[in-house]
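Can't paste images in this forum, so I'm doing it all in text. The chain is below; anyone willing to post the predicted structure tokens underneath?
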Amino acid sequence: MNISSSTDIIPGKKCAFTICTKSYIGLAEALFASMRDAGSPFDTFIVVVDHDVSDVKSDVATILSGKIFYGYTDEEWIAQTFKYDVVEFCTSIKARSFLRFADQGYDSLVFFDPDILVFDDMQVILSALEDHEVVVTPHRLNMNSDIPSRGGLFNLGFLAVRNSVQTRNMLQWWDDRLVEHAFTDPARGLFTDQKWMDNLPLLIPPHQLAVMRHPGMNLAPWNLEEREIKLDGIEPFVRLRHTSDSWQKPSFVHYSAFNYRALAAGNITDKDRQVCSRSAGFESLVEQLMERLRNGRFFEFSEVPYEYDTYSNGAPIHPGHRRIYAQLAREGHEYNNPFDAAGPFFDALRSARMLSKASNRKLGSGRGQERAAGRVVKVLDLLSGVCLRTLGYDRYYLLGKLLTRYLHPVNHARLVGKKGGDSSIEYF
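Text version of the structure:
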């Protein structure tokens, strides 16, 4: 769908924004404090996706309520916050955020994940936007890596766009897909908002797309092994490893998946030190985030739970329940409020014996889970041997392909209600 700007674009008007939960306001403030201190000439915004933030003010950014800002109806908001987990939901509204800020007349718009610090005045990005419509950074610059890009070619913890009809058309295309398909689901070719932007070179003419090769832009755990860092006194510099390229100052650093609570308390965990060991000198950059978190308001908000993590009775929402709801809703089933523990969706899960007995923290991983998985694998090996001898390899191979798809959480919807009588199998 083609759209045009709904307001006049104001030359020189620039905004930078991030999207996060209320618990991450302190982390987002560290981002925008770093931008302020680096002299970046932007209006800055923190879009918060949960809880009332009308009474929360910040010295470094304007705090907006996502529910109000995006213009969703109550029914749409409930549907989106239930079917997506917190990461999926925050990324699913990224394109819509760009469109909303473009409506305000900003001519240059930049998104950062909240776990980033900026180290320069961003003139490199602004200069790129003078000649291009979109600016992106790839996950890696070294093509010798054999690590597959399951998360997409570009890392969208950063994205910069120039406000134009062309970019608004691209953003609308992106938003149309994120409404229904922002899941973390590599088996189905999906990874939040990022995988869709592998299509960016087809949506934006190549000469108007700036793919930045600056080694100090989006410096992150996934590319540390291809980059080396040196300190000149206290000043960090970075370049691609095994090259004679000139050293450059970091532009912005992405501290993805670090233990921010430990950093705010003045500690670097052993796990985070292992990440730092991938490139000598990176720990000094982590210490800069640690210093900002220690001096900021991280602990003022960090204990606030995600508002859409539980049913109305306090029971955790299992990740599988979100997929089941999304599939049933896509097929036309209507549930007014899936969060309601007295409602029809929860009742359908109960009837199908699909309610979880574990807390959210127990659903992921841990040594207990690994030991249990090992025992299950041994049982499955025995059953697979029986199937192989019974069916022969040709039919056993076909059975494996079917079960890979049938057992996917999106097809668990067949177990709800009429035991699969009116829910189709998705053959992805």
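Residues 139 and 387 are 42 Å apart (CA to CA). The longest helix spans residues 367-391.
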